[in-house]
UniProtKB/TrEMBL annotation:
<dbReference type="InterPro" id="IPR036837">
    <property type="entry name" value="Cation_efflux_CTD_sf"/>
</dbReference>
<dbReference type="InterPro" id="IPR027469">
    <property type="entry name" value="Cation_efflux_TMD_sf"/>
</dbReference>
<comment type="similarity">
    <text>Belongs to the cation diffusion facilitator (CDF) transporter (TC 2.A.4) family.</text>
</comment>
<keyword id="KW-0812">Transmembrane</keyword>
<feature type="transmembrane region" description="Helical">
    <location>
        <begin position="113"/>
        <end position="132"/>
    </location>
</feature>
<protein>
    <recommendedName>
        <fullName>Protein p34</fullName>
    </recommendedName>
</protein>
<keyword id="KW-1133">Transmembrane helix</keyword>
<dbReference type="GO" id="GO:0015341">
    <property type="term" value="F:zinc efflux antiporter activity"/>
</dbReference>
<keyword id="KW-1003">Cell membrane</keyword>
<dbReference type="GO" id="GO:0015093">
    <property type="term" value="F:ferrous iron transmembrane transporter activity"/>
</dbReference>
<dbReference type="Pfam" id="PF16916">
    <property type="entry name" value="ZT_dimer"/>
</dbReference>
<dbReference type="InterPro" id="IPR058533">
    <property type="entry name" value="Cation_efflux_TM"/>
</dbReference>
<keyword id="KW-0813">Transport</keyword>
<feature type="transmembrane region" description="Helical">
    <location>
        <begin position="153"/>
        <end position="174"/>
    </location>
</feature>
<dbReference type="GO" id="GO:0015086">
    <property type="term" value="F:cadmium ion transmembrane transporter activity"/>
</dbReference>
<dbReference type="InterPro" id="IPR050291">
    <property type="entry name" value="CDF_Transporter"/>
</dbReference>
<feature type="transmembrane region" description="Helical">
    <location>
        <begin position="7"/>
        <end position="29"/>
    </location>
</feature>
Length: 296
């Protein structure tokens, strides 16, 4: 079993544990804000399951029906997570509205906050693990899950502060107000995750710094060629697709042109792990005198 699959399964177990702890905190206090925090954790469990399914699909090798692989499945998972976050936010707003109309004093608020604090600490540690490992492996489903958990940590801290302030002041209306604040915050988080994932589904180019790395590698390693043009990039899960036209002198043999391409591909894969690089070789009369200038 790969490390990625283990992390995805771990997310499910951590999500269930954190949800149980948060539900206990809500049961102890009756707090609408703590209930909203627990409701968000139900999304964590559901999206962790979706992420596991997406990762398993994305790891399948290319086949006749999917010659470019299955990596796009991870973007669908991240979009689903964004949608579920928004749905959870709307449910929280409904609960907050009811609490605002009828604010009540909380039972055992300090005990409930301590219990909720344990869940927050667990989420913080696991979120850091997911984001770190997800970025290293270039797995957007894990990164999206980790980013959402970080949002959960921030909102949990805000909820704790609001409940504590309500307890100290006796202004119990702060409890539903804090729940509404949680909903607005995770609405923003969900929309951001959806935007990032949709950009992947729309074949958005790699970030500018990665693009500059690609250009520099081609310029440095394509000795024997004349220029490279029509460079295009996109990413799908952990795979980065790079394609371009490479112009070589007309007298260049097929063997020599192939050697140049092999050298460039090897350097690009080293600079951009997981890259797939089709190169179209053209003779010198196809020069555009634009694009990437070969240094040697």
């Amino acid at each position: 079993m790969s490390t990625t699959i283990k992390l995805a399964i771990g997310s499910i177990f951590v999500g269930v544990i954190v949800l149980a702890i948060k539900m206990l905190a809500w049961w102890l206090t009756g707090s609408v804000a703590l209930f909203s925090d627990a409701l968000e954790s139900t999304v964590n469990v559901a999206t962790a399951i979706a992420a596991l399914i997406a990762i398993r699909i994305a790891m399948r090798p290319a086949d006749a029906s999917h010659p470019y692989g299955h990596e796009m499945a991870e973007f669908f998972s991240a979009v689903l997570e964004g949608v579920m976050i928004i749905v959870a936010a709307l449910l929280i707003l409904r609960e907050a509205y009811g609490g605002f109309l009828n604010p009540v004093a909380l039972d055992l608020p300090i005990e409930g906050l301590l219990v909720n604090g344990v869940a927050t600490a667990i989420n913080a540690v696991w979120a850091w693990i997911l984001v770190t490992r997800g970025r290293t492996a270039k797995l957007p489903a894990l990164v999206a899950d980790g980013k959402h958990l970080f949002t959960d940590v921030v909102t949990s801290a805000g909820v704790a502060f609001g409940v504590l302030l309500a307890t100290i002041t006796g202004w119990w209306i702060l409890d539903p107000l804090m729940a509404a604040g949680v909903a607005i915050n995770i609405l923003w988080s969900g929309s951001k995750i959806m935007k990032e994932s949709l950009s992947g589904l729309m074949d958005e180019a790699v970030p500018q710094n990665t693009l500059e790395t690609v250009r520099n590698v081609i310029s440095r390693e394509a000795g024997g060629a004349m220029e490279a043009h029509d460079l295009r990039t996109r990413h799908a899960g952990s795979t980065t697709f790079i394609d371009f036209h490479l112009v070589v002198p007309g007298e260049t043999t097929v063997f020599d042109a192939h050697e140049i391409c092999d050298r460039v591909e090897a350097a690009l894969v080293e600079a951009v792990p997981g890259a797939k690089i089709p190169i179209h070789v053209e003779p010198d009369h196809k020069q555009k005198h634009s694009g990437i200038v070969v240094l040697a």
